[in-house]
């Protein structure tokens, strides 16, 4: 047995080149390398754990923010707040605005409550009064209710900055500044606040034109009028605007003037002015005269009369420019009124008035940009239906005026 095990047993066979024995220094270096590798693997594992945990935390928070996880608010809310819906906002974007203002608890709560709600799908950009910490369904109801829209400003065509009083009826027509003031009124938690007309006038008079976003093409005429608030006349275009009820007067006027300048430019005012060898401000002023002196069917003819009279260095002699400085409406002005020396009175002032005399409509501006062909120098409305006669002949014009008197058009209340 001993011979069998001692002589016939198979010995293990080494594979590869023979192993060299390391000396002491080499063994120490090898141990250090092994230790660094173990430490490196440990750090990598720790960092991986941190990344995974962080991702889970962030993802969880984002999911909670967008899709819920918390309970909806209950009750009637805490306090009134105004939020803004921007042009092009999706339902989710509105929900984010509401969550940021602490109106709803989560975006998802609002999105779910607003699902298939036609009023929310068609909501107009603007400012809306809601309450903080209300159920999402109530937030939807409030936004869908037109009564909760605030800061909506509608400026009719042909309005001037100041209020106008009709000499015959004493009726007062709100000017643009009054319309702005009323649009800023809002009731928050039972307290009504408005920006006053006086506050708006003060800013219109004293703020630097650059701080009011006055366009470059209007900077000269605006500066020349000094501290008269009417220097901004015509620079706020008619139309519907959204203004922030909580904004300061300067911000409100600057926003309106800046947006109006953009609207005028997009409408081709600057390009047309260059083609006509006039300034955009001159065309805007002509448009305002056209607006006040005639009805739409005669806009282009009145524009031609203005350009013809200017070309012949004649005074325009428009009663509308007399009334402008007096803040009133009157068809037949008096000799005393026509003799007043103001920057706008075209009976005593050559050329165009110092500023536009109202905010002209797009058709009136279009007429100023493309007047009708004709040699007329005079016009007068002869009946209550608005029939207007145009002529170049002065005796014929006098006859037309007499016809207007007989028809009661030129009757004065004074």
UniProtKB/TrEMBL annotation:
Entries under InterPro entries matching the protein: MLTG-like (IPR003770)
Main location: membrane
Sites annotated Important for catalytic activity: 293
E.C. number: 4.2.2.29
Pfam name, any one: YceG
Keywords: Cell membrane, Cell wall biogenesis/degradation, Lyase, Membrane, Transmembrane, Transmembrane helix
Record's bilayer topology term: Single-pass membrane protein
Transmembrane segments: 39-58
Keyword Cell membrane carried by entry: yes
Key word Magnesium present: no
Role noted for this protein: Functions as a peptidoglycan terminase that cleaves nascent peptidoglycan strands endolytically to terminate their elongation.
Family, as annotated: Belongs to the transglycosylase MltG family.
PANTHER family referenced in this protein's UniProt entry, alphabetically: ENDOLYTIC MUREIN TRANSGLYCOSYLASE
UniProt name for this protein: Endolytic murein transglycosylase
Native source species: Mycobacterium deserti
């Amino acid at each position: 047995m001993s011979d069998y095990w001692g002589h016939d047993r198979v010995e293990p066979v080494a594979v590869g080149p023979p192993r060299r024995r390391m000396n002491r220094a080499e063994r120490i270096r090898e141990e250090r390398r092994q230790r660094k590798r173990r430490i490196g693997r440990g750090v990598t594992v720790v960092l991986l754990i941190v990344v995974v945990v962080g991702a889970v935390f962030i993802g969880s928070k984002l999911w909670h923010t967008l899709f819920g996880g918390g309970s909806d608010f209950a009750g009637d809310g805490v306090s009134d707040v105004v939020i803004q819906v921007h042009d092009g906002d999706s339902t989710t974007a509105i929900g984010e605005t509401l969550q940021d203002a602490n109106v709803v608890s989560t975006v998802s709560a609002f999105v779910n409550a607003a699902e298939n709600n036609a009023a929310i799908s068609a909501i107009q950009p603007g400012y809306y009064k809601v309450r903080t910490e209300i159920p999402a369904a109530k937030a939807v109801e409030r936004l869908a209710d037109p009564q909760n829209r605030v800061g909506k400003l509608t400026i009719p065509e042909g309005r001037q900055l100041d209020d106008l009083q009709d000499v015959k009826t004493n009726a007062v027509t709100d000017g643009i500044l009054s319309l702005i003031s009323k649009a800023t009124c809002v009731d928050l938690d039972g307290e009504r606040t408005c920006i006053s007309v006086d506050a708006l006038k003060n800013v219109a008079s004293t703020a630097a034109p650059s701080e009011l976003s006055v366009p470059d093409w209007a900077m000269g005429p605006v500066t020349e009028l000094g501290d008269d608030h009417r220097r901004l006349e015509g620079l706020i275009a008619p139309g519907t605007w959204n203004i922030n009820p909580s904004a300061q007067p300067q911000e409100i006027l600057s926003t309106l003037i800046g947006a109006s300048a953009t609207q005028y430019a997009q409408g081709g005012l600057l390009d047309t002015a260059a083609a006509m060898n006039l300034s955009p401000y001159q065309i805007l002023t002509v448009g305002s005269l056209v607006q006040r002196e005639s009805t739409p069917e005669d806009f282009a003819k009145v524009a031609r009369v203005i350009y013809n009279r200017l070309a012949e260095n004649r005074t325009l002699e428009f009663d509308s420019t007399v009334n402008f400085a007096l803040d009133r409406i009157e068809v037949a002005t008096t000799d005393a009124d026509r003799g007043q020396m103001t920057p706008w009175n075209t009976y005593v002032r050559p050329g165009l008035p110092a500023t536009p005399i109202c905010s002209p409509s797009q058709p009136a501006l279009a007429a100023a940009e493309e007047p009708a062909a004709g040699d007329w120098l005079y016009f007068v409305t002869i009946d209550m239906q608005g029939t207007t006669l145009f002529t170049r002949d002065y005796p014929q014009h006098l006859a037309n005026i007499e016809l207007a008197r007989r028809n009661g058009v030129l009757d004065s209340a004074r």
